[in-house]
């Protein structure tokens, strides 16, 4: 296999959710593979990921937006693609890694939490996919080779407990990924998603503190451990590199230590 099949030099990746956990590891992986990075963050105060990317010799800018606000999200792609400071003068990769979780018994689930989860986890990724797709397809000439990576979940396939909004949002991400692939794969745009299994991140702290539930989860994972953010570096680079995954579109890469095989 050619040594440059996973080379992202000269590419720019727009990443949400890059300040912590899986999203941070994936943003760093894209930078390690050679890409320059745009981090969409709630504010510009958290510079940990930014500084780590710059230390790799990559360009990195922070774009401030509220991913729970449709109005704020609608400004992201238009603002960036008309900016004179856009790295490499283009966006080649979209990584939708931001997500939130809210847990309540379903019969008591607050409408506000439902709306916030669906906006952040599903509507925002759709808007960014739509806007980046429009940017690529209406360019003159149209830009080919764009790659979109959405983040699904085991709850794209399973219902879970006390997380109806999260399960609905992640089921939607999986189907949205397939739908966009159907329209855009013929235009040279790859649209895929990654479904993480149980990963030791802040989002799962409650589960990890519950000794009984944590043991039940661990006992079902064939690999014998919870995942960690570094487990997602290889998968995201694979899907971001057209040379490596050019014939892959509309797929969900499950990274779960074997959970779904049980």
Automatic annotation (TrEMBL):
Q: Does the keyword ATP-binding apply?
A: no
Domain of life of the source:
Eukaryota
Q: Which UniProt keywords apply?
A: NADP, Oxidoreductase
Please tell me whether the keyword Oxidoreductase is annotated for this protein. yes
What Pfam families does this protein's entry cite?
Answer: adh_short
- Identify the InterPro entries for this entry: NAD(P)-bd_dom_sf, Sc_DH/Rdtase_CS, SDR_fam
Similarity field: Belongs to the short-chain dehydrogenases/reductases (SDR) family.
Name the UniProt record assigns to this protein = 2-deoxy-D-gluconate 3-dehydrogenase
Task: State the organism's lineage.
Answer: Eukaryota, Fungi, Dikarya, Ascomycota, Pezizomycotina
